Amino acid sequence: MKRIVNKSKDFKDAENYDILQHISMTPEERQKIAWKLKIRVYGKKCLDVRESRKFAKKRKR
């Protein structure tokens, strides 16, 4: 994914640019970006949300 910088004069212009950028991406591109951010923040060994719920249910028993 190519990084893009946009300088806006006010918040409304920045928000409009952000919305247009999200609309122009495919669902696959958005999922790929979300996955990269997840890895950057939590690392590669983090559980998927669905897996963590299964683990929490097993611990309660």
What gross morphology would you assign?
elongated
What oligomeric state do these chains adopt? single chain
Beta-strand percentage range: under 5%
Mean pLDDT: 85
Work out the radius of gyration.
Answer: 17 Å
- Helix segment tally: 3
What is the structural class?
mainly alpha
Low-confidence stretches: none
Distance between the termini: 44 Å
What is the element string, with H for helices and E for strands? HHH
Biggest sheet record: none
| DSSP strand count | 0
Q: How many structural domains are formed by the residues?
A: 1
Helix content: 55-70%
Task: Explain the overall architecture.
- The chain has one domain (11-60).
- The protein is built from three helices and no strands.
- It is mainly alpha-helical and 61 residues long.
Index terms:
single chain; 61 residues; mainly alpha; 69% helix; 0% strand
Chart the SSEs and their pairings.
Blueprint: H1 11-24, H2 27-42, H3 49-60
Short description:
The protein contains 3 helices and no strands. With 61 residues, it is an all-alpha fold.
